[in-house]
């Protein structure tokens, strides 16, 4: 009989202690809520005012921070708003949300630095950065599209390339982008220079727009394996057409590479100032002149958004999305006649010490993709046919000019 009585005595004792503790917590909350919190971000130049000042001020200043012309910024805001991807909130307009996002891409700034620039809490900055990132990435299917099968005008209008490259619809390259990742996951991301990066495959047309982007592969992955994965996930080459690739890929009917151990790279041509001496040298020269488009587009992208040269502060999944979003914005700028002539090292807003040295694409194909190995003979036949026809016409042209 004493046991139940003791049990109830303990129960009420615990309940009394719990009630006293709850009363203490409620008292603390009440006492603290009676005092006004001291705001941190009290600058007279709020984030909204800062963006208004940019958009109403000098074009150079706006372009430096927004990474595009003001009229293109307004067009991008309109697309995001009209597509119901972003809306004004009580405290932050779509214009300011996009400006926060672009400032991050152009500076690789920490959350605290962005708080100071736009006068918002860290949670607000993070929330709107992620909202814009998701919105811009969702535009990728509309703005990054595979090219048409028609011969590009950059080829059809140039006798150096036509008719030899009439079936070429673009160029492909691999590029590395630095990443930050926890130590336990680092090994696969370690590239041949010993740093951490993601290997990215980009395909572009001859208008210097991206037509496909595959991001997120580990830095140790070969360019050919990234391409193989892209072909398994939406990237394809129409029948009879092909892309130009560098020596890091197998030479196949759909991906035409230069001849190995044969000059030219464009820099070699400039140094030697000599004419090609055979069909393979001429082919490599013309191949390099055309494929230079993809090298240029990668350079422009990283100059416009220097965060791609740095190990950023974001989670690994977000780091891949940042690369895709950067490509989307690049295409949007090109599609609206934006300029990239103003981009140079002096316009970079990142600390040079944050820039990470990463490798370029693979220097040679590693014979690591069976499906590509099986098609190399057919690729060699196609390449030889192009080179021989080109050389025959080139010799005839020289003879005609000398007569």
Please tell me about this protein's structure.
The protein has 403 residues and is α/β, with parallel strands linked by helices. It has 2 domains: 47-138; 145-312 and 352-402, no CATH class. 50% of the residues lie in helices and 8% in strands. The protein has 15 helices and 5 strands. It has a 5-stranded mixed β-sheet with strand order 3-2-1-4-5, sandwiched between helices. Strand 2 and strand 3 (210-218) form a beta hairpin. Helix 5 (94-107) crosses helix 7 (122-138), helix 7 crosses helix 13 and helix 12 crosses helix 15. The N and C termini lie far apart (126 Å). 39% of the residues are buried.
Query: How many strand segments?
Result: 5
Strand order of the largest sheet: 3-2-1-4-5
Estimated share of beta-strand residues: 5-15%
User: Average pLDDT value?
Assistant: 87
Please give the alpha-carbon distance between the first and last residues: 126 Å
Structure class: alpha/beta
Helix-residue proportion: 40-55%
Tell me the series of helices and strands, N- to C-terminal.
Answer: HHHHHHHHHEEEHEEHHHHH
Shape: globular
- Helix tally equals 15
InterPro entries: DUF8040, HARBI1-like, HARBI1_dom
Cofactor: a divalent metal cation
Domain DUF8040: 42-138
Subcellular location: Nucleus
What is the element layout, followed by pairings?
Layout: H1 2-33, H2 47-56, H3 59-66, H4 70-82, H5 94-107, H6 111-118, H7 122-138, H8 140-143, H9 153-156, E1 168-178, E2 197-204, E3 210-218, H10 223-231, E4 242-244, E5 255-256, H11 266-272, H12 279-304, H13 316-335, H14 370-373, H15 376-402
Parallel strand pairs: 1-4, 4-5
Antiparallel strand pairs: 1-2, 2-3
Helix pairs in contact: 5-7, 7-13, 12-15
Domain DUF8040: 42-138
GO molecular function: hydrolase activity; metal ion binding; nuclease activity
Subcellular location: Nucleus
């Amino acid at each position: 009989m004493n046991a139940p009585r003791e049990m109830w005595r303990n129960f009420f004792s615990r309940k009394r202690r719990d009630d006293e503790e709850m009363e203490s917590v409620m008292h603390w909350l009440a006492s603290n809520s009676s005092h006004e919190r001291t705001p941190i971000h009290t600058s007279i130049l709020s984030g909204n005012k800062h963006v208004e000042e940019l958009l109403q001020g000098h074009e150079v200043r706006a372009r430096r921070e927004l990474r595009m012309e003001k009229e293109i910024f307004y067009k991008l805001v309109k697309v995001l708003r009209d597509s119901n991807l972003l809306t004004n909130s009580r405290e932050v307009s779509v214009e300011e949300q996009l400006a926060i996002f672009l400032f991050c891409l152009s500076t690789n700034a920490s959350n605290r630095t962005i708080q100071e620039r736009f006068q918002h809490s860290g949670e607000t900055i993070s929330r709107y950065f992620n909202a814009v990132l998701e919105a811009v990435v969702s535009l990728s299917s509309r703005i990054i599209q595979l090219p048409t099968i028609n011969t590009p005008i950059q080829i059809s209008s140039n006798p150096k390339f036509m008719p030899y490259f009439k079936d070429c619809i673009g160029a492909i390259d691999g590029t590395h982008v630095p990443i930050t990742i926890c130590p336990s996951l680092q090994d696969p991301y370690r590239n041949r220079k010993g740093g951490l990066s993601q290997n990215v495959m980009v395909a572009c047309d001859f208008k210097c727009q991206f037509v496909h982007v595959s991001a997120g592969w580990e830095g140790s992955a070969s360019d050919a394996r990234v391409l193989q994965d892209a072909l398994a996930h939406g990237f394809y080459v129409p029948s009879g057409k092909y892309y130009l690739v560098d020596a890091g890929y197998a030479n196949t009917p759909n991906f035409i590479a230069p001849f190995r151990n044969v000059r030219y790279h464009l820099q070699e041509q400039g140094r030697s100032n000599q004419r090609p001496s055979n069909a393979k040298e001429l082919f490599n020269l013309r191949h390099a002149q055309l494929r230079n488009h993809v090298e240029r587009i990668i350079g422009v992208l990283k100059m416009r958004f220097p965060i791609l040269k740095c190990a950023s502060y974001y989670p690994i999944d977000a780091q891949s999305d940042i690369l895709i979003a950067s490509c989307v914005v690049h295409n949007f700028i090109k599609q609206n006649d934006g300029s990239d002539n103003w981009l140079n090292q002096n316009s970079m807003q990142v600390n040079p010490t944050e820039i990470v040295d990463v490798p370029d694409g693979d220097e040679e194909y590693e014979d690591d993709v069976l499906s590509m190995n099986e098609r190399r003979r057919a690729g060699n036949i196609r390449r030889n046919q192009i080179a021989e026809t080109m050389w025959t016409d080139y010799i005839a042209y020289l003879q005609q000019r000398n007569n």
